[in-house]
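Homework help board

Subject: predicted structure for assignment chain

Our instructor gave us this sequence and asked us to write out the predicted structure in token form, then describe one feature. I got the tokens but I'm not sure how to describe them. Can anyone check?
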Amino acid sequence: MPTVRPPPILLLQGLNFLIGLGSFLTAMTATSAWNRAGWSAVAIGAAMTAANLCYALLASTGGRLSDGWGRARTGALGAVVSAVGCALALAITSAETAAAAAMLAFAGAALFYPGNVGLFSDAPAAVGGALPLHVKISRYNLGWACGNFGGFVGYFAFAKLPTAAGFGLSLASYLAVAVILLRYRRLPAHSLPAEGDRSPHPALPRLILMGRLGLTIASILAMAQIALLQVVLRTMQVPVDQAAAWTGLTLTCYAASYIAMFILLGAWDGWVLKPWRLFLLQSGFLLGSLGYAALGWWGEPSAPALIVCGMLVGSAFGAAYTASIFYSLRLPHGAGRAAALHETFIGVGNTAGPVLGGLVLWWWNGQQVANGLVGLGLFMAVMAMIGLGLQVAMIPGAVRLGAR
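My token output:
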């Protein structure tokens, strides 16, 4: 039997792109279906929470399957699970089947990503010559991030079209991933040696914990924004189609800004083991959130102003995500399990964001103090202060252990 070589990095980035595209286009198409059906912020938040709970619960399973059953097989299985959800939404058009599609899309992604990151880590050895870890992380991140960007662009482009357009494109993306990965189903697991920038460091446990806690808060912020921005615009008497278009454009620029941050952190290694620098790059969480609240308070949101806020939040998300995945994969041993835990923390934050944000907006609207955009912005600002505060408390300990 001929030896099966790991997929090249460019192909793996393409697979990440397709899963990211499908996942976020499915989620945003489902959100549009719920808004068209007149669902409340609480109902939409609960539906998005259910989808993200599937991700949180299955991420560790994806890690175990990829180590034991096979990385390519697990990735292909995840793509098939996501495809089933979109096929269901295409067969039965309703807000409820859109919710099922979002749940299955995120469940499939939870199986795909742990296997893909393992394949990605092995690819440089297969083509002769290892890349620095921060460069590999940047390329991994750029794959799924560009996919997310494509999902937001697709949502913006399809805002006035039937939801079948979004679900159809997502289905095609998932099927392409499954077909490609099945070619590598006999690929055995590999493990990189604990050397160079994967050698032990005394500050790693603290940096990993700090990164994961920061990523959890970042995911709460991101998913609350994704799930609820359109609904708060709708409550401000912005027409449904216009609210959808503004939301799609804002989230497209949000995704573009964390792509830019991934490129920066891949080209510049001055942040490695220097947590204060990554902390400063996350200040956009607070600035963007307060910007949303200010726009709501003035009562005159516009697409350009919303875009600026979304880009600030996106750039900060890029820094928080990089901290968590980089230090997880920098572990000299157990990096695969660490990557799965990284995905689990994302799932926890993504799960909490829509339901917490939805409940806060339900309470806020009952107070009749100001519109929902003010409430969403203030909720996000409080979460940002918690995330940044945790890092301020933990960074000095990491510095004492050798980080700078």
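Reply (TA_rk): Your tokens look well-formed. For the description, you could write something like this. The mean pLDDT is 86. That's the kind of observation they're looking for.
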